[in-house]
Amino acid sequence: MKKDLSRLLSLLLCLLLTLGAFSAVCAEEALVDAPFEGLVEGLPAIQAPEGFDWRQFEGTTINFISENTTPSTAIAANIDLFERVTGIKVVIEQADLNAVIEKVGLDVNARTAKYQVAYLDPQQIMAKNKDNFIDLNKFNNDPTLPHVPGGLEDFFESQMMCCGYMGDTDKLLALPYDNATIILGYRADVFENETYKKAFMDEYGYDWTPNPDMTWDQYYEVAAYITREAAAGNITEVKYGCGMQAKQHDSLMCEFSCVLAANGGDYFQAENLGSIGAYNPGPAALDSEVAIESAAFYKKLYGVADPSSTSWDWSGLAEGYAAGNLAMICEWHEFSADFENPSKSQVVGKTKWTITPKGTVRNACIYGGTGIGISAYATEEEQKAAWLFLVWATSPQTQYLCLTSESGGSTPTRYSVYALPDVARGISDPDSEEAAKMPNLKSSGAVQLAWATENSYLRPKIPAWPQCDTIIYTELSKMLVGSLSPEDAMRSANEQLNELTGN
Q1: Which end of the chain offers a freer environment for a tag, N or C, measured as fewer CB atoms within 10 Å?
Q2: Which pLDDT band, with edges at 50, 70 and 90, does 16 fall under?
Q3: Chain segment 273-286, per-residue pLDDT in tens
């Protein structure tokens, strides 16, 4: 991921040269721009072979199932741009991730292709369904069809590996679609209050403002202090120092991972499970001292958080923060646009972002990006129509459109979008006019730091992960409500993981 960041800087410096070379290549291949509206100068446009009939699949209906994320909201709001050009009807169904997992599983098991296009969560859908989705190289290498604009190399390399492949790089299963990452959001109006800041400094001796060097122990101290002072009426803007996504749900595992990995722990002993993935993860690692200590800390943190935290997944946590009750959250960064939306938030203009706290080893921000792929059971015509949709939905032009959309917003998975001058300005200055037009950019500086290899965590990408996930968050939930001690919870989870994976 260091390579990702250095490449992004290179693109910022070399954009004009890159575009010039891209135009020359397109001229040599006799390609023409697709007739889509609102093309942005400086971004690769969708190219098709000369004479390509964009309406050859007119009348085809494509059903796309997605988690209810901001990129899909923005895509749905602008889908008429695609439908007018192609004559293809796209029905977008958005649901909770658990519902998406269940519906996609039922669909591929029945081989009905009710959903021609699916949101392929790498760990919970793609890892165990490699044979149920088409190899996208089939279409990207077809000289009679449009190709991925800007090429696959325009996607972030680490995200392409995590979201696009399983076990090897022979088969391209999905194109990177979103890239949600957990980072730390905080109330700037609270932390920049000089009276509050001085009072904390007098008691603890350090600046309480969240930053990349903040440790998890400091995060706890700050949260405990704010919760205490808010209860005493000395801090009035919020009620609690932090909130957590600690419901018995995938969200609980995700947030705990940021603590576990920061302390050097993981769920299995095999290495590099998060990128390309593997079919056997090796022995479980939750009976380690690091895992047990991480669990004990997470339970301690819950003791000073909003007590509603055990009923909150990521959406509940976002709502609690948007209501103005919380000083700090570790949350998926794509909620940043919601926090700047007056119709959804009482904290507009009050949030700043940094990466999650540092443990005994490093910072560890869990990456939760997902790609979209095409069902292997769709008809040939449906597959080609779906390919046109994938090319459009993940194109730099559409990603920029979604970034600026009033209906949602997203964080691009493309180097070329970040190379645009207005996007670069919005990232470098969160108070700029550009950032106001693209609210997700307010968190993008922290997100790009989170994507550096040393600061990122990728959960295991293995076929059995959905069951592993359930084991982990179930035992953690028992710990939080007091049914199990941290040690017993981790040892129980470890035993179940080994039994499940045959290790």
Answers
A1: C
A2: very low
A3: 999 999 999 999 99
> What would the CATH number be for the domain defined by 182-366+456-501?
3.40.190.10
d(C-alpha 442, C-alpha 426), whole Å? 7
pLDDT 10s digits, 39-76: 898 999 999 999 999 999 999 999 999 999 888 989 99
- Quick one: what percent of the chain has pLDDT higher than 70? 93
Same fold, 2-180+368-419 and 182-366+456-501: yes
Residue pLDDT, tens place only, 209-233: 999 999 999 999 999 999 999 999 9
Structure tokens at 334: 């794509």
| Pairing relationship of beta strands 326-332 and 47-49 according to DSSP bridges | unpaired
CA torsion sign for 96, 98, 104, 107 is negative
Query: Can you read off the two tokens belonging to residue 308?
Result: 């509603």
Contact 320, 306 (CB under 8 A): yes
Rounded to 10 degrees, the C-alpha dihedral 284/286/288/292 comes to 180
Residues in the chain: 503
What does 359-397 look like in DSSP terms, one character per residue?
A: -SS-B-EEB--EEEEEBTTS-HHHHHHHHHHHHHHTSHH
Q: Do 284 and 268 meet the contact criterion of CB atoms below 8 Å apart?
A: yes
pLDDT-derived band at 424, boundaries 50, 70, 90? very high
Helix (H, G, I), strand (E, B) or coil at 26: helix
Contacts of 107 (CB under 8 A, 6+ apart): 113, 114, 115, 118, 375
Q: What 3-state class would DSSP assign to 166?
A: strand
Q: Which residue has the higher pLDDT, 468 or 29?
A: 468
- pTM for this model (two decimals): 0.89
- C-beta of residue 404 within 8 angstroms of C-beta of residue 43: no
Q: What is the pLDDT of residue 408?
A: 62
Place of tokens 């018995």: 248
- What six digits make up the tokens of 41? 């100068």
Q: Give the pair of three-digit tokens for residue 87.
A: 């004559």
Nearest to 334 by CA among 394, 402, 429, 395: 402
- Beta bridge mates, 178: 370
Amino acid identity at 384:
K
Q: What tokens does 316 get?
A: 């509940």
pLDDT over 70 at 22, yes or no: no
Q: First-to-last CA distance in the chain?
A: 31
Q: Which fold does the domain 2-180+368-419 belong to in CATH?
A: D-Maltodextrin-Binding Protein; domain 2 (3.40.190)
C-alpha neighbours within 13 Å on the C-beta side of residue 331: 32
